[in-house]
Amino acid sequence: MRTPLVLLSARLLDPVTGRFLPETALAVSGGRISALGDDRRIRAHADSSTTVIDLKGAVVTPGLVDGHLHPVSGAELTQGLDLSGCADLDDVREALAREVRTLAPGAWLHGWGLDPNVFGDRPVEAAALGPVLDGVPALLQLFDAHSMLASPRALELAGVDGPRTFSQAAEVVCDATGRPTGLLLEDAACELVERAAPRPTHEERRARLAAALRGMAAAGLTGGHAMDAGGDSLALYAELDAAGELPLRLRVAPWCQPGSDSEALRALIEQQGTGGRLWRTEGVKLFMDGTIDNGTAWLERPDCHGESTHAFWPDPDAYTRVVGELHRAGVPTATHAIGDAAVRHVLDSVEKAQAERAQADGGRAVRHRIEHIETVPDDTLRRFAELGVIASMQPTHCCDFTRADHTDNWSRRLGEERASRAWRCRDLWDSGATVVLGSDWPIAPYPPLGVMAGARHRRPSRDLNQPPHGPEQALTALEALRGMTVNTAHAAGEEHEAGRLAVGHRADLTVCADDPLTTAATDLPDLPVLLTVLDGRPTHRDASL
């Protein structure tokens, strides 16, 4: 049994009612909350093996859980040059030039977080960054992580000198003469060049992952819904867990790609429930489209460039059949669907799967999810609640990658009507949907207080004086807190043991210096996280405690 923990002089915040519990202390044993009460009563639970922490009036909430993140790929991706702070092409060129001066001859330059808005009205292509990258093999990930720019030297080393054909929606973008521009759309195209670059060792990847997860714990996260399991991701989680170095409870959904046959589906089904003490494989991740910014979303009407007209699955009906098979096996799905046509098709597929299962045996409910949901028409809103489909959303994407005046790339591509339906968190909540909040790290920063703040203020985090994008879609402080506690527990089918401060529930706790519900949204990201507890064990403790 894990060493007991006692927290005293606390304000215990109920994320359902938004009120403080009458108790001021709690005891933890075996990784669960074993008692709630006043300081005197709970102190009596302590013995010589107990860790006793006086919180001095700090606020305890159930552990904050990120509803959508990519720990392993994010830990690797964010090791390169951070371009997310670059506001225009001159900023990008200057940052690249500084980085080039540090490189050894022949070394690759890796960058991430590149905002397509820096290109303005120019095409997103490597030529816009010349001559800084002349002779330098470089891979620059755009912020959406669905596209990247490869320098001419990188393309040369990878042997990519023209268009390619893929079994899924992906593209090596070429000019009128058939020469690659450097823009690579979606994983299959990006991997052509990534394979030519040096790869970190397993030990390096493990160290990077451990460091990233420690940072998440220090920011107040106790868990995350990890939306990938590629490569050696599961082995890395298992190693950290076995070594007692896993500071987050992870729910991992491996990918199912177009073209997966019956054997691949059986393997995904059989993999469900496997894992370790603090992580497990639960659910399957699928993609229905790409992103609006790079023209690979699936829209009911084309964007202003005539793009975003196709599904990620060349045969959308094949996706529907896969969802049906997973549903019959009781496996929840999480589908990346950004455009209105993609969201509608996922809802239709879930509805069909539920109808077929009900006719067959009246089987138990399976909690399916849609990830992102960036623009949807009115008639799709009510269907989330009717079908029990979780709305998993990332409000900081709206905050940091779009603008209130719709002059950003995302909004210009969509046009005024669809851009006015951006990230409809309020409308989905009011329609009865369960809204889960997450960061999609490394696409956006992982600190959960920043995610909750973004759901409330909907302003660019770099300049909170800017007007909000769609302020009518903001959530309240309590709703934002529920989006990372109660609702993440419900989405995972864990509401009986997570998301509340109750005896018998997991001792996954986040402790802030003050009340996150009364802290102004613009101040919330700076609210100190004093203590993070996972499974009854502190994973972060501020020096003031």
**Global outline:** globular
Counting DSSP H or I runs of 4 or more residues, the number of helices is 18
**Portion in strands:** 15-25%
Would you identify the regions where 5 or more consecutive residues have pLDDT less than 50?
none
Class from helix and strand fractions = alpha/beta
Find the count of extended strands (DSSP E, 2+ residues): 24
Rg is: 23 Å
Give the strand line-up of the largest sheet: 8-9-10-11-13-12
Let me know the average pLDDT: 94
Largest sheet: 6 strands, mixed
Q: What does the model show?
A:
This protein starts with a strand and ends with a strand. The radius of gyration is 23 Å and the shape is globular. The chain has 18 helices and 24 strands. The longest helix has 22 residues, at 340-361. Helix 7 (233-242) links the parallel strand 14 and strand 15 (249-252). It has 545 residues and is of the alpha/beta class. The strands form 5 sheets. It has a 6-stranded mixed sheet with strand order 8-9-10-11-13-12, with helices on both faces. The mean pLDDT is 94.
